């Protein structure tokens, strides 16, 4: 038995130890050989064949590392391994770079659950910075597991030189993509009815919405809206409207009918009064309803008798008048609630009237009259805009009735079902209907089952909600998208021509902004005075709007000191370590270089060697001591246990450059500690001084970290500079820092994430700019992958179209037709008028053996790692590749069939090998070029 830690719920499970099969052990030996001999990288350095044939470009879609690989990953990964291997064996170089998807609602939801945060208000009280740092810490929690499992599955892929969508270089390329679209007129800000997740507090794109539809039980209601007379008083005649969203009724602003339809006025009487002649009925007891003539007989429960009357329970419905819909247009009516009538709303004179709308149709449900709540539906909003009807909310962004909706204030209009607390998605609807029932305004209600959209991440019912968002104008390039897609080879073909092709034909503008936190920020700033927007496409452009102090910063390492000559470390006082005679000569040479700089301040480390260097420079420049400023933040790093020992001993303590940054000697500092203190000093002086020339006299390691602060280097980049000595300074060497304040985190790394980007003040001349606080839809980020993984166009611009774009091959699951495949195509066509990929393999869904979705709670599938240990990775790979799932069909995963593949194919191969090994020392060797026959047969089969 062994222990298995489940980090998803912080539990420890006791599991049976899996006995590895001979086949699995043999695979592990092969894997060890591959790793030991660096076979994958060698195949990249020298492709097969006497003459390399160039690049075969492959894009690897980035997964989340917030969980362990499942069979869906294994399936796609196997396809992604087989095709690049084939082309590598045919003489092409196929780069296979791994990536990580780091942003978006999936990760945010995990952090919310971990921290017990219920909504955006909780997040903001916790702090955006704290929340995002929690997300950053969790995003690669399982990365080390992936780096073990993926190679064990037999895949060749570069997981060390990976890209991450949260990297600053990646984000800068995303900004560039967005700015290019904006300059092409393909970006706009719009107020539209969109699907809102009230719990997440953000809108979703149309293809995100399509991922979350589910059948639910709801209540439809037919409501009476009394027509008004010339004096504005309710009459005894009501127009009937039908809706499946009772919670929108307090927001009613209009009724829509079709002017070309036939409508009828119907008298409603109790059955006992039906024998009375119409002319004898007292008008004060009459109740009339208006609806489309065709719909009268379709209302459930209503039947027609032999006299032409319609029977409905205890009532008789008699047509007393027929009219065209045009006769109803412009009539006023009394809305079911008066909340909005009591509000101070501009343009209200157009409200609560009947309007014509072409989209009103006669189907199997409804009355031919539609309730219009402009803030809660696309068609409703369009009608309101066309007729200048006010668009007013009665529900807030958290999905609650606003305070002025007094009877229901604070109630969630569409909560997520929760059996534990007894909350139902129908709670608000039922309260609204109960109130209307008491007011006598309901004509009929019934239970229905229909498909309703839910948040694809947390299952919360979505609201169709009017709000502002930023859009990519996909409709402007729709024809180009269809044309580009027609040139792509899809496997299976019908996915590209039907599922994906039809989706493109109906493509709508893409909402790319999200009102969330952990994501690449929108690079949009708005002038506080004029409202004019600035879209920024690079770090260099960002710097042009950041106010600068006008300070000039120079750095120099102290002149040679006594302990430099002995290669000994020193940071403590009381040790004689002054400048040597050679060092004083170095200072003279340094002073000559500084003569033209007009130094205003010399900031120096308090140690003897730096103090002497600073004082000597000031003296040689003819400056008095007032320019000298001692600052402990410029101290040499704390060496701790290595104080007084050699530099070589200190360096041997660290295995890598990353180690030197993060590992602390006992009683000492690491380099990141130093980076933080010099970063604090540099940003402080930028605020304190203006137009000054400032010289820092410090130590090699300290000044290396200051250079890293100026560049905004992250951990990996800083480590590279340490390892290649590019930041290294010789004694008395002078350098100029090109410093501009950057959005940075606590480690003084360039960081575009919130809140750091929001804290940077930007100005256009004298006018302040304010950033639009939204972040990107994570699909926009992943769709930018062809460019952002290479930091294009800031890197590899010369070789991009030769080595990086477009991809000859990509592969993902069927669900990506409305995800990664779509977002990549939109951006590729918008930027370069071509598809960013040429061939696509689309796999289906891997289900449990019983055809149900694989579920940990149901324990209805074998653990992938255990299965590989028992039957071998090749058996799993052959099983998946030979199944219909690689042609976009679903697969019910069967361990028995994996075993059959192992015995049928791998077993035979191993038997052949065993036979060969048994007789290899005797007899004549075969002269038939078997390998060429196999290769030729394979080519014939794929052609």
Describe, in plain words, how this protein is organized in 3D.
With 943 residues, this protein is α/β, with parallel strands linked by helices. The chain folds into three domains: 260 residues, HUPs (Rossmann fold); 251 residues, Valyl/Leucyl/Isoleucyl-tRNA synthetase, editing domain (Isoleucyl-tRNA Synthetase, domain 2), CATH 3.90.740; 191 residues, Phosphoglycerate mutase-like (Rossmann fold). The protein contains 32 helices and 35 strands. It has an eight-stranded mixed sheet. Helix 29 packs across helix 30. The C terminus is likely disordered.
What percentage of residues falls in helices of 4 or more residues? 25-40%
CATH domain class name of the largest domain: Alpha Beta
Topology, number of strands: 35
The shape is globular
Provide the gyration radius in Å: 36 Å
Unreliable stretches (pLDDT < 50, length at least 5) are 275-284, 936-943
* Structural domain tally: 3
CATH-assigned homologous superfamily of the largest domain: HUPs
CATH topology of the largest domain: Rossmann fold
Strand order of the largest sheet: 12-13-14-10-11-8-7-17
Report how far the terminal alpha carbons are from each other: 50 Å
Give the amount of beta strand, in percent.
15-25%
Whole-number mean pLDDT: 90
Number of helical segments with 4 or more residues: 32
Class by SSE composition = alpha/beta
Main beta-sheet strand count, sense and barrel state: 8 strands, mixed
The CATH architecture designation of the largest domain is 3-Layer(aba) Sandwich
């Amino acid at each position: 038995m062994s222990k298995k830690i489940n980090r998803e719920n912080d539990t420890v499970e006791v599991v049976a130890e899996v006995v590895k099969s001979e086949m699995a052990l043999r695979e592990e030996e092969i894997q060890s050989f591959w790793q030991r001999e660096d076979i994958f990288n060698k195949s990249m350095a020298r492709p097969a064949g006497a003459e390399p044939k160039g690049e075969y470009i492959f894009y690897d879609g980035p997964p989340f590392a917030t969980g362990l690989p499942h069979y869906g990953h294994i399936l796609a990964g196997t396809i992604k391994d087989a095709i690049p291997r084939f082309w590598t064996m045919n003489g092409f170089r196929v780069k296979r770079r791994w990536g990580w998807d780091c942003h978006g609602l999936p990760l945010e939801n995990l952090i919310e659950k971990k921290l017990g945060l219920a909504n955006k208000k909780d997040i903001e009280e916790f702090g955006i910075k704290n929340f995002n740092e929690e997300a950053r810490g969790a995003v690669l929690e399982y990365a080390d597991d992936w780096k073990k499992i993926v190679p064990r599955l037999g895949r060749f892929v570069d997981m060390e030189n990976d890209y991450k969508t949260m990297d600053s270089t990646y984000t800068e390329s995303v900004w560039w993509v967005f700015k290019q679209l904006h300059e092409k007129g393909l970006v706009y800000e719009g107020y539209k009815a969109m699907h809102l997740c009230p719990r997440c507090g953000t809108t979703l794109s149309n293809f995100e919405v399509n991922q979350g539809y589910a059948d639910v039980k709801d209540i439809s209601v037919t409501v009476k809206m009394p027509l008004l007379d010339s004096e504005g008083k309710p009459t005894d005649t009501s127009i009937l409207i039908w809706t499946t969203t009772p919670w929108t009724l307090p927001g009613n602003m209009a009724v829509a009918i079709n002017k070309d339809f036939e409508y009828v006025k119907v008298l409603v009487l109790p059955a006992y009064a039906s024998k009375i002649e119409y002319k004898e009925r007292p008008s004060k007891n009459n109740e009339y309803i208006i609806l489309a003539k065709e719909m009268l007989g379709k209302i459930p429960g209503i039947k027609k008798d032999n006299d032409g009357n319609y029977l409905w329970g205890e009532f008789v419905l008699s047509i007393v008048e027929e009219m065209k819909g045009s006769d109803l247009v412009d009539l006023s009516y009394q809305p079911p609630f008066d909340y909005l009538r009591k509000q101070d709303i501009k343009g209200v004179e157009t409200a609560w009237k009947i309007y014509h709308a072409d989209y009103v149709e006669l189907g199997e449900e409804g009355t031919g009259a539609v309730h219009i709540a402009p803030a809660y539906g696309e068609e409703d909003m369009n009608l309101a805009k066309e007729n200048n009807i006010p668009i007013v909310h009665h529900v807030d962004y958290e999905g609650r009735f606003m305070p002025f909706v007094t009877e229901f204030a604070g109630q969630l209009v569409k909560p997520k079902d929760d059996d534990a607390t007894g909350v139902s998605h129908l709670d608000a609807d039922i309260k609204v209907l109960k109130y209307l029932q008491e007011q006598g305004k309901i004509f009929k209600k019934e239970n229905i089952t229909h498909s309703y959209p839910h948040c694809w991440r947390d299952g919360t019912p979505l609201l169709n909600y009017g709000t502002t968002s930023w859009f990519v104008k996909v409709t402007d390039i729709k024809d180009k998208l269809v044309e580009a897609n027609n040139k792509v080879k899809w496997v299976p073909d019908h996915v590209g021509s039907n599922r994906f092709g039809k989706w493109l034909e109906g493509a709508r503008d893409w909402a790319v902004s999200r009102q969330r936190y952990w994501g690449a920020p929108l690079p949009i700033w708005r002038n506080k005075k004029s409202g004019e927007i600035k879209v920024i496409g690079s770090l260099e452009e960002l710097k042009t709007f950041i106010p600068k102090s006008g300070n000039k910063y120079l750095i120099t390492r102290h002149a040679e000191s006594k302990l430099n000559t002995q290669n000994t470390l020193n940071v403590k006082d009381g040790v004689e370590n002054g400048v040597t005679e050679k060092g004083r000569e170095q200072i003279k040479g340094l002073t000559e270089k500084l003569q033209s700089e007009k130094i205003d301040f010399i900031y120096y480390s308090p140690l003897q060697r730096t103090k002497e260097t600073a004082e000597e420079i000031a003296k040689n420049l003819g400056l008095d001591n007032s320019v000298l400023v001692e600052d402990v933040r410029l101290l040499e790093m704390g060496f701790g246990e290595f104080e007084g020992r050699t530099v070589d001993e200190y360096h041997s303590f660290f295995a890598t450059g990353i180690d030197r940054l993060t590992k602390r000697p006992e009683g000492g500092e690491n380099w990141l500690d130093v980076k933080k203190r010099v970063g604090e000093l540099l940003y402080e002086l930028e605020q304190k001084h203006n137009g000054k020339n400032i010289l820092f006299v410090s130590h090699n390691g300290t000044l290396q970290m200051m250079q890293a602060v100026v560049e905004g280097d992250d951990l990996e980049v800083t480590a590279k500079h340490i390892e290649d000595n590019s930041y290294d300074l010789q004694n008395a060497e002078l350098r100029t820092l090109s410093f501009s304040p950057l959005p940075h985190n606590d480690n003084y790394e360039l960081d575009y994430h919130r809140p750091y980007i929001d804290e940077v003040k930007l100005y256009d001349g004298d006018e302040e700019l304010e950033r639009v606080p939204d972040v990107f839809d994570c699909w926009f980020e992943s769709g930018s992958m062809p460019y952002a993984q290479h930091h294009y166009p800031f890197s590899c611009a010369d070789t991009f179209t030769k080595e990086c774009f477009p991809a000859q091959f990509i592969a993902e699951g069927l669900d990506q037709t409305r995800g990664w495949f779509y977002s990549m195509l939109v951006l590729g066509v918008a930027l370069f008028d071509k598809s960013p990929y040429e061939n696509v393999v689309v796999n289906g869904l891997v289900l449990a053996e019983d055809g149900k979705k694989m579920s940990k709670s149901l324990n209805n599938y074998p653990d992938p790692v255990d299965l590989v240990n028992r039957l071998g990775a090749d058996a799993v790979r052959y099983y998946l590749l030979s199944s219909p799932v690689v042609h976009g069909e679903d697969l019910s995963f069967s361990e028995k069939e994996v075993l059959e593949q192992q015995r049928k194919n791998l077993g035979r191969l191993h038997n052949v090998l065993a036979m060969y090994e048994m007789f290899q020392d005797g007899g004549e060797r075969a002269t038939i070029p078997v390998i060429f026959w196999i290769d030729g047969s394979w080519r014939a089969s794929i052609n």
